[in-house]
Amino acid sequence: MKASRWLFLLAGFCTLGVQAAEEVVKVGLNYPKTGHYKEQGLEQMRGALMALDEINASGGILGKRVEMVSRNTSSVPEKSVRNVEDMVRNEGVKMLFGGSSSAVAIASGKKARALNVPYFGTLTYSNSTTGEEAHSHMFRETYNAWMSSKVLSKHLNEQYAGKKFFYITADYTWGWTTEESLRMFTNTTDTGAHPGVKTPFPKSRVKHFKEALAAARDSKADVLVLVLFGNDMVRGLTLAYDMGLKKQMAIVVPNLTLGMARDAGPTVMSGVLGAVPWSWKVPYIYDYPRGKQFVEEYARRYSSYPSSSAASAYSILYQYKDAVERAQSFDTKAVIRSLEGHSYSLLKDEQIWRKFDHQNVQTVYAVRCRDLDEVFADRYNLDYFEVIDSLPGIEAARTYEEWAAVRKKANRPLLLN
């Protein structure tokens, strides 16, 4: 009798354990906790945690509490792939997101597809992510090199048409496609007239930047384009300032984030031109209430303003929640169908998950970095970006015909699989 009672109680506990597991859904953040892009990784984590708390406070997703597990990529693709395998097989995550290095996002997304889990790219600006390497399970929330270059080129063509450009570019997929796009839109494709050098990634050293900047100085260029990101941009731009290059040429950083600007500081950043998919001032300039609410809650929590990295991670969790609830299922195929072609407004104006390439089509912004006194007039000393131009997503993004040409050239199918 005692044995029977013990078995009955054990069965009851097992049932409760299964029920408890079923009441939780896990998502996985694959992000750079260390390495050259760690500051962007921290912002992703903060934005994700904020969304997680809000979603759970409002009932979770389909009544399930959301738990987030995370792994450090160190911006190394091979490590990121192992992380995906671990989080799917051992943690049971239903969705993955993250990035900062496009090489990481592309490799992680491919592994997620093999394991039949959707992957959302946060900071992954290479055109290849939703171009040659696009597939059914990858959704890019942020803009890409094509979109940022297109909005930035409007200003550059007005101010620097016919001038000599010099490119210093991180030697991997994001760097290549960003340089290629900006050269195309600024008519600087002639590498004899507009030279450039590559710097190693992720194993760049100060000497690499010094050598590249010396070549830029000796070229007598009018415009220096630093296709560098994260700590690499901070080091490269600081060295350019120390070498006096800001007095000799205009400086362009095609993809900026608030964290990069903060780490370089207002003296170094003043006057630098770049592009962003979002900044904390955008909701106030254009009166987006939900965006303002996000900025103010983030500031309350972290005594800082959110960067586009935080906004991307935050938005992704809400978009996953909404997609699951529209589909009434966590099934991957159902979630993919729910996302494709869906339009929404969250932290800014309307955005759409384009069906044919899974690129998030959205308004993009060209910015100029403010002077020191303007930056320091802000309560957090973070008012870095003056919006000098914007471009609607439909005008900024590749057309279907342009995308199809890229796919055909790469011998990839026109229907994602």
UniProtKB/TrEMBL annotation:
<dbReference type="GO" id="GO:0006865">
    <property type="term" value="P:amino acid transport"/>
</dbReference>
<keyword id="KW-0029">Amino-acid transport</keyword>
<feature type="signal peptide">
    <location>
        <begin position="1"/>
        <end position="20"/>
    </location>
</feature>
<comment type="similarity">
    <text>Belongs to the leucine-binding protein family.</text>
</comment>
<dbReference type="Pfam" id="PF13458">
    <property type="entry name" value="Peripla_BP_6"/>
</dbReference>
<feature type="domain" description="Leucine-binding protein">
    <location>
        <begin position="25"/>
        <end position="370"/>
    </location>
</feature>
<dbReference type="InterPro" id="IPR000709">
    <property type="entry name" value="Leu_Ile_Val-bd"/>
</dbReference>
<dbReference type="InterPro" id="IPR051010">
    <property type="entry name" value="BCAA_transport"/>
</dbReference>
<keyword id="KW-0732">Signal</keyword>
<dbReference type="InterPro" id="IPR028082">
    <property type="entry name" value="Peripla_BP_I"/>
</dbReference>
<protein>
    <submittedName>
        <fullName>Branched-chain amino acid ABC transporter substrate-binding protein</fullName>
    </submittedName>
</protein>
<dbReference type="InterPro" id="IPR028081">
    <property type="entry name" value="Leu-bd"/>
</dbReference>
<keyword id="KW-0813">Transport</keyword>
